[in-house]
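In response to the reviewer comment on reproducibility (Comment 2.3), we provide here a single inverse folding case reported in full, input and output, so that an independent group could reproduce the run without further information from us. The structure tokens appear first.
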């Protein structure tokens, strides 16, 4: 399975890097391919290293203004013209999506993927990996959106909130029908 992971390129502490590394190792040991932003920095590097060292493949999609930070030993690396093209390529190359901890870029990617799913533009499973309760506030906001009629379908049809990588991968494998 090609698993797109949206996440931060920032250097983060052990509370985020350890669970990210564990999830990456699950991806690699499972024979899956990581589809990610292609960066050789921060949490993106931690996840790519974990996948690659555990036997998985890497498909990166960088963007022209970040190409100098792209990983040089990925199995495949594509350089997109802009962020919009990058997001489209990441979704196109994946069978499922996992949203890990990140900043505004990750939040932008997450909301676009969910908006596309809401409108039926893709049916891929989407998981928010809620490491250390990072997305508790977002989950509460999404629940309010559902409760107050802002979502045309149940929140559970849009996204699955996973507490850890084991739960995230199990959900993806079950939902996608791909192993």
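Designed residues, in position order:
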């Amino acid at each position: 399975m090609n698993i797109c992971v949206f996440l931060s390129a920032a250097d983060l502490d052990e509370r985020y890097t350890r669970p990210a590394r564990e999830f990456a190792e699950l991806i690699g040991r499972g024979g899956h391919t990581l589809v990610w932003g292609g960066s050789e920095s921060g949490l993106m590097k931690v996840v790519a290293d974990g996948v690659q060292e555990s036997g998985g493949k890497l498909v990166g999609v960088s963007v022209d203004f970040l190409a100098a930070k792209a990983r040089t030993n990925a199995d495949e690396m594509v350089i997109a013209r802009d962020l919009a093209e990058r997001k489209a390529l990441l979704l196109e190359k994946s069978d499922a999506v996992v949203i890990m901890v990140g900043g505004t870029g990750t939040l932008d990617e997450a909301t676009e993927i969910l908006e596309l799913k809401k409108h039926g533009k893709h049916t891929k499973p989407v998981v928010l990996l809620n490491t250390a309760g990072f997305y508790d506030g977002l989950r509460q906001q999404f629940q309010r959106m559902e409760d107050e009629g802002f979502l045309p379908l149940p929140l559970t049809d849009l996204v699955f909130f996973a507490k850890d990588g084991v739960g995230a991968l199990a959900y993806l494998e079950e939902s996608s029908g791909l192993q």
